[in-house]
Amino acid sequence: MVFLPSFTDSKELYHQEFDSDTVMPWHECPLLQMDGSTSWTATSTDGGAGMLSGGHSFVSRVIIHDGHYKFRGIPQPSPSSQHVVTFAVKKLKTQDEAGFNKEVAMLRNLGGKKAHTVRLLATFRHGGVYSLLFPWAECDLLAYWHRDLGPAGMSDGLIMWVVNQCHGLMTALEWIHNPGRDVLGPKGDMYGRHGDIKPENILWYKEKGDGPHPLASGQLVFSDFGLSSLNHKDTRSGIYNTGILCTTTYAPPESILENYKISQAIDIWALGCVFLEFATWIVDGPGSVDQFMLKRMAPHLRSPTKRDVFWELQEIKSPGSTPENTAPQYVAVVKPQVVEWIESLNNSPRATNFIRDFLQIIQQHMLVIAVGDEPRNRARATPLKSKFDNLKRNCDRDWSYYMAKANHAIENPRPVVLQPEVVPRHLSIAVLEAINRGSVAIPQFRG
């Protein structure tokens, strides 16, 4: 009751073990609804109303007594200051030591070392429960998109901030994919993968003080490295898929292939989906991301259950073929609804040259269907970052590039749909079973 723990990011106290009787030096803050975010839901289980629940963990917002923490770059408030520093305690729902150690290792290797990656402050086990300590974020990206833009609307300061954040996220992903000796020093090059990019896993750390716009401050960071991985060069794309674990909405179309080798390309696809939603928000404002989600909703793999994924399976009908004399062949394509949505954004009266170039990168280099066994035609992180360097450079040079409306409509933009054949024996067993028992017709491929 007297000797309360202290927390620091020094190597000596990075991880600590406490028995269940230890009193922690903090109190939990009440949580407000996350402005429409589906990443966390308020719960009264295992911690009361001051805790949020996700798929694998509970998260609570706490104020640590200022005598019981010391972290680099996080000042302790003075007695006269009204500024309150809050932290996030993430408690894992399972006692899986291996899973905990894997996530901690990834966070230590990849998190916080570069901008736009979440910083792990400390870890501990309290009464058998594994926990991680982070700075508290204002909200995640999905909740950010639902915030009121205020009277300033989509101002030039806000759009320029978005440009910088998208460039920063792409820069961070390029480093995650190629951290090399920054991670292991002279031991050799390493290649990473996030594995679960989605708006709920991108956090907004808002800066205090006035800025050009209430939403144009702080930094967006990648979080939740629980599905991340580090591999050597010869194995970075050599891990076979037994059912990709990343969130279904942002999973790439190759996730339906049997024995597909998981690669860094799944991050490029997922970030392309997120960036397309970001472009939607820039053009049409709050509420438009939900409209885009509803536009994508359709039966998936012959299941009557509708999903909002960005691709669909289509059946190739050969001339003269019948079910008796030929096995069906399938092709994965970007959903026609997504192609139409990109076209509508391109031709919106609010589209700027920046928006059109942003969409072109997404369309032609990120949301690209895999051909053959490897999605080699989808851009890799390093050349993709160069394209975002050019985007940012154009915005820095010319205000009109990202604010002035484009002066002509785009007719018949280059389609995203490529035409790889995926024959039944290449599909995973689970997908084949879903197709066979489904009651909804699969669209016919007309490419």
Describe this entry's structure for a reader.
The chain is an alpha+beta fold and 447 residues long. The protein has 2 domains: 17-136, Phosphorylase Kinase, domain 1 (2-Layer Sandwich), CATH 3.30.200.20; 140-437, Transferase(Phosphotransferase) domain 1 (Transferase(Phosphotransferase), domain 1, Orthogonal Bundle), CATH 1.10.510. It has 11 helices and 21 strands. It has helices at residues 97-110, 141-145, 156-177, 181-184, 265-284, 288-296, 336-346, 353-366, 381-397, 399-403, 429-437; strands at 7-8, 15-18, 26-28, 41-43, 51-53, 57-64, 69-70, 87-92, 122-126, 129-135, 139-140, 191-193, 202-205, 219-222, 229-231, 239-240, 261-262, 298-300, 303-307, 311-316, 329-334. Strands 2, 3, 4, 5, 6, 8, 9 and 10 form an 8-stranded mixed β-sheet that branches. Strands 11-13-14 form a 3-stranded antiparallel β-sheet. Strand 9 and strand 10 (129-135) form a beta hairpin. Helix 5 runs antiparallel to helix 8. The longest helix has 22 residues, at 156-177. It is globular and about 80 Å long. The N and C termini lie far apart (71 Å). Residues 32-49, 232-240, 242-246 and 414-425 have low confidence and may be disordered.
